[in-house]
Amino acid sequence: LKMSRFWFYLPLHLLMAACLCHSIKAPTTSSQQSFKTDLFNFYHSLILADGKETTIHLLKDIPKRYYFVLEEGRALAPFTITVTPCDVPIEWSILVHKASASFLGKAPRGDHDTQEVPKSQKAPSMVSTIFNYKGNSVETYMGMSSHSALYMLEFLSTERDTHITVYLTTDTSGHLYPELPNDPRIDVTGIGHTTVTLTWKHSPSVLQHRENIQYCLLLNEKHNYKSLCAAETAIRSSGMKLPPTLALSLSPYLLEPQQVMILSNSELSIINKASSGEVRQICMGTKNTYTVPNLSPSTQYYFDVFVVNLLTNASAAYTGTFARTLEEPEPKVTELKDGKVIQVVLDGKKQKFYSLQYQARHKKIQFTFQLCRGQVRVHITKNGKTVALENISGLRYFSLKGKLLDTYLVQLKSTEESNSSVKVQVSPHFHKLLFPLLPESLKIKSFSKLRTCNSVTIAWLGTQEESKYCVYKKRIEEDQVWRELRNVDRCSGPESRHKSEKVLCKYFYDINLQRAVTTETIKGLDAGTLYLFDVYLFGPSGTPVRYHSKVVKTRKKC
């Protein structure tokens, strides 16, 4: 209430007496105790400010009371009270000291739990209830009084401690809360595998005060929220610290570690990571159509739109809606044939599975995977049951047993954002192997003490099988090392190299694996220069296997 009003210059006990004198003469013995109780309750209530949103904290099962006074001298003085529960359902009532016999009131938005006491009812008590409500919806009461009156608001939470906001105003010309259209529903106009398109009717406040109003969308996988403070309370209770009006203040420095803020095309998106799922807030200015991206296929989402006054941070909620994204289409399946090698390129950005299918013609089969680039996850199922699941590196064999006509499904997926590629072969266990017998390690070792200004000495492991080894070298710069090692195609053979890079080819093996090691000194190099060395191993089938590249620098001074 405005401090200039006469009522607030009176002491509280005189204010009580002034309001009560209109309807009370001398209390009788039977009503004396009730009078004292009512006066005690009013005295221990708090004053509710006019024209200001008040946050009230409620303790479980403990009622809390506030009061306000309508000034004298105004005919049919109007007032409005809006209560917003921020968590669980609450009970609240408006009570009035009957300073006047003529009281008019109405509740324009109400649920079945809302009750309005007809003015024709005359209660013997000094205080009468003119309105009560139970629920968690935002509820507004509008009333008028023809004479000065003392009103009391009583709030109660029976489920747990909570908080609410209360807004009282006697000024009908202004609006703290943005207005909702006559039809406040959100329409779902499009559904995809990872997107949902929404549209809603413009708020009259947006059309009148475009620069101070914006729409904010909140989506989650649990349920709709009836107010913005209810949504923020739910986010906090899930284990995250969400600063009040975070999406409205647009303050990046308020973000918590569990939050991610994305600003693009004048849209602010705040993603809250919680164990119970993801809550996303998107503020898109005054656009009343929005396509929500980056959703998960075959998932139900709940969408709420709030129209927000940026000057006051007050908001009004549209009627929430929900939609289920479409199921992800079945990936195309490529048939594998005995002994045939195929190379698969996997898109790291889309993170989709590439599927291969094989129907066994033998009881024993072997899958061979050669990783060419990146990182790949392999998932093999037999008749729907998993038989292998791992991330592969280099060359990997899976020997499996089953029955004739068993169906094997191989799913490949890049585990990196960049593209990956892999070669795949399936064959009977007794089939001629595609790749040569491999040594224990494919690493190339260099000897620092044997380096000179124009030569380096390298070594690598061999096998018990006589095989051909070819050595290649390439001169590189310091800033090329990471790119060369990162982008190397481990499936490519010497045919992709320039002839000038070839150093030599040699055959060797040793029955004793402890002695199956060979060394080679490469001469004719430049001093203080970086070189990239590669060794290719060729088996009986002629398919090469590339050792891990090695970078060595010759000495600058000798």
From TrEMBL:
Pfam families per the record?
NDNF, NDNF_C, NDNF_N
Where is the signal peptide, in residue numbers? 1-26
Q: Name one GO biological process term.
A: nervous system development
**Where found in the cell?**
Secreted
Gene3D superfamilies associated with the record:
Immunoglobulins (2.60.40.10)
Q: Which PROSITE patterns match?
A: FN3 (PS50853)
Residue ranges of domain Fibronectin type-III in the record: 231-328
Q: Give the keywords, sorted.
A: Glycoprotein, Neurogenesis, Repeat, Secreted, Signal
Any idea which GO molecular function terms this record carries?
heparin binding
* GO cellular component labels: extracellular region
Q: What does this protein do?
A: Secretory protein that plays a role in various cellular processes. Acts as a chemorepellent acting on gonadotropin-releasing hormone (GnRH) expressing neurons regulating their migration to the hypothalamus. Also promotes neuron migration, growth and survival as well as neurite outgrowth and is involved in the development of the olfactory system. May also act through the regulation of growth factors activity and downstream signaling. Also regulates extracellular matrix assembly and cell adhesiveness.
Q: What is this protein called?
A: Protein NDNF
Q: Which organism is it from?
A: Fregetta grallaria
Phylogenetic placement of the source organism: Eukaryota, Metazoa, Chordata, Craniata, Vertebrata
**Gene it is expressed from:** Ndnf_1
